[in-house]
Design goal:
Number of strands: 7
Number of helices: 2
Radius of gyration: 17 Å
Strand content: 35-45%
Distance between the termini: 18 Å
Structural class: alpha+beta
Largest sheet: 5 strands, antiparallel
Oligomer: single chain
Shape: globular
Order of helices and strands: EEEHEEEEH
């Protein structure tokens, strides 16, 4: 990773809730509020934005975990601000980049949690994916 990649980096994204972000199961719309999975997707995007500017040419990030509490509903048409803050870089076998993520509708906290990405050498990642496609890995990054 490039220099100056340290805890405290913040990235934000804004999005507007659209009907396709509402929960629907078996084609049945449940309600006209942002689904948890749509909110988590936006949180993953914000966390990725923290990492992308600091990757070296030979590196890539891959999602490893996400844990989110969805605290309040938010209806179609409302704008949401998602913020990711780099809180920790854990240097195990491969560096793990841990971000705190939050989502707000105006001043209201909609969701909070953490998202983790693993930074790997692109060639190592390609080989790992290839081995995984043949069932040759233990599933641990």
């Amino acid at each position: 990773m490039k220099p100056d990649f340290n805890p405290g980096i913040v990235r934000e994204i804004l999005f507007t809730i659209t009907p396709h972000m509402c929960p629907a199961f078996d084609g049945v719309l449940i309600h006209r509020c942002c689904s948890t999975w749509s909110l988590v997707h936006q949180m993953e995007i914000a966390a990725r934005k923290i990492l992308v500017d600091y990757l070296e040419v030979h590196e890539e990030g891959i999602g490893a975990s996400v844990s989110v509490e969805h605290l309040a509903p938010c209806i179609v048409g409302r704008q949401v601000r998602v913020q990711a803050r780099l809180t920790e870089i854990n240097h195990r076998r491969h560096p793990r980049v841990i971000c705190e993520v939050t989502a707000h509708d105006s001043e209201r906290l909609l969701a909070k949690g953490t998202q983790t990405q693993v930074v790997m050498n692109k060639e190592h990642l390609r080989q790992y994916i290839e081995r995984s496609s043949h069932g040759e890995t233990n599933g641990t990054l």
